[in-house]
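Predict both folds.
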Amino acid sequence: MTDAGITLAPAQVDPELDGDHERMSHIVLEGFKPEKGDFISAGPSVVQGMVNGTAVKALCGKIWVPGRNPKRYPLCPTCKEIAESRGWKVPAG
């Protein structure tokens, strides 16, 4: 896989879920481009999620509707570890 389409997206706080995980930016794999071929979508993009209220899924498995500025939150260590283990460039958080 090359040119992975990954985007940082902050989680909205849900009081019924683990508080610490809610206060992190997560990495969403929006798709990838194989060495030969066109871009392949892996699900809704963060922009689609914010505009249409569509849930997205982070590398760590968290599913939520994005709606906040990811630069305000630290990067989820699980998402970061998964991305780095696959050799992807991790966006600056």
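Second protein follows, with its predicted structure tokens after the sequence.
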Amino acid sequence: MKKIAVVYWSGGGNTEAMAKAAVDGAKKAGGDAELFRVDAFSAQDMKDYAGFLFGCPAMGAEVLEEAEFEPFFQEAETKLSGIPVGLFGSYGWGGGEWMRQWEARVKDDGANLVGSLAVENAPTEKDLADCTALGESLVKALA
């Protein structure tokens, strides 16, 4: 079975809730999924996984969190060519522009973007169900 890593950064818990729902979806679809806070995962660890779900909220001027997530992701994105990837996170302003920029960045890296989900503020039950579906989609992309 191909392993999936769900790697996230969360400041207030919204993105963490989304990450947990994505892991649940991947497992529900028969995937071998593991959940990691970004500070417990490195780009070197990526070699052990076939697909990734990355979660990070919008910060500042519509950017990824800059102290931990962005440095990790800059290194990780050099390893994404041809790899199934899903993106998720929450935002409080800006209409989700950070997600559109992140999607373009991942596609430019050559990744197979299987889906993305940008949630305004705290995720609703429907948003969490969409996160579950994103996890399921990643497992299907690995089949």
